[in-house]
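Forwarding these from the shared drive since the link keeps breaking.
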Amino acid sequence: LDGTLTSKFTTTAGNWYTYCSTWSLASRTFRVYVNGHLAGTQTTPSGRRLTTGYKLVLGAYHTDGAQQFGGEIFNLNVFSKELTATEIAIMAAKGLCTDTPEELEDYRIIKWEQIMKLTRSGTVTDVIDPRCVAAHELQGTKRKLETAVGEKNSVELSQNLTQAELLKVQGLFNSTQEDLEEVKRELNETKSALVDTQSELEDAQSELEDTQSELRNVTEYKCPINKGNVTKWDIFYSPIYYKKPFTRRLYQQLRTTWDSVSSKI
């Protein structure tokens, strides 16, 4: 593309330029971008593929080391996908100190920080722009802050969810407690009713025993109860009534005995 790019842009010594070239087997198109703008394209033959197993040479022609690059290279990266024009423009807009977007980091297969650790040939001098050092530190700090904010939001969300769950559990606990109190009241009422019933049964049992005793006394101390030889008034001479204080209970017992004797006279 050297011949076709000559009229596309001009360079001035001492200035930095963002250069990016892209190609993929699917598109078959070789594209060159300068400062984020498309400078030229070329269609490659069908079926052309990249050949692996060779060395990547920076700053010189790969076969004989001639045609050396007389300039400075900074932040060179190779990606495993064909970058879009938008992605290239975004990185170019940040200038010399551009940083790889997080969404493209997984596609960066050859990294500048790795290149800086490789063996150099010829006269190579490291160039460190203080602006980029500060920019990278600022970017690192920004990412740490974003991470911290994300973790803080995650913790707050977790706390809110936990609080909502606690309130839900508290509501269920209060409802269950109210149900238990209601059951407890019903049990107490049932217990009280059983006690009253038991007392009534005991009173009825006592009255029955008194009546049976009275009938036995009437039969034993008087005479057999037959029509014509005893009256109802003779009951008062039985041991259970004779010379006894006339209480309400005795009155109730007398009524029962009176009706029983009356049916036999």
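-- next protein --
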Amino acid sequence: MLPWVIEVKTPEEIVKMRAAGRVAREVLDIAGRAVKVGITTDEIDALVHEESLKRGAYPSPLNYHGFPKSCCTSVNEVICHGIPDNRKLQEGDVINLDITCYLNGYHGDCSEMFVVGEPDDKARKLLQTTYDSWVKAMQFVKPGNDYKDIGAIIEDHIVERGFTTVKKFCGHGIGSVFHTNPNIFHYRNSEPNGQMAPGHTFTIEPMICEGTAQCLTWPDQWTATTQDGLRSAQFEHTLLVTPEGVEALTGKIETSPVQFWERESDVHNGVWLGTTPAAKAREEIVKAASTGEN
């Protein structure tokens, strides 16, 4: 398939994408609340599996090209695709939980960072910078814009703050197929990956590193880590392009935890759910719930 050929979802498909995204969000929130000193990522994985099935969904990563678990748990220097195991989380760890749920024939894909205990100053800067670059990139999304231009927005934001962006992995189109067109590169590029149009669904998921963005792949053929052992961070939403802008199909809900990078962001204060009037209205509802105003 040519890289600029992108599936346009029908209204019926978008309804199913919203449902899958909602389930993925609920499962991610539950998994995030379990993050604490002493828990193993295997225990988090078991929780993800149980909560996915409870909602009538299947955890998309399980057996995907042989992946052995129901979610990805990427701790500290792990960039992505960390396989849950029996290591206990320790005070100060930073962890990305990457959740994808397959519901009624469609995938919802999202990830978020969580901190075990209190973050050090360098971790706070890494997480805030990664989050802000991600939000800036998502705010760019609207019909007629080029997918290739997402990468420069991310790279420009993070490089001037002393960080690097991973080039080996990318965001992707998503729907009834887990990974499809368009490819979303998180660095400046000129790839002919098409233009945004209403009905497109895809992910933006930058992987930002404290040191080098060069990767090592472990013998398990999945786990990717930084070559220098310094930390990496990532956020991800499944996004829908609409005539009015963009909406996060995996956006936070009234019961979702609000993290420090959302409260302290200079790019967008509070939870980000999209640029459409409907998304902005939902942001106010979530904000009221998080502050006890409703």
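The longest helix spans residues 11-33. The helical segments are 11-33, 41-54, 121-139, 150-159, 260-263, 277-290.

- D.
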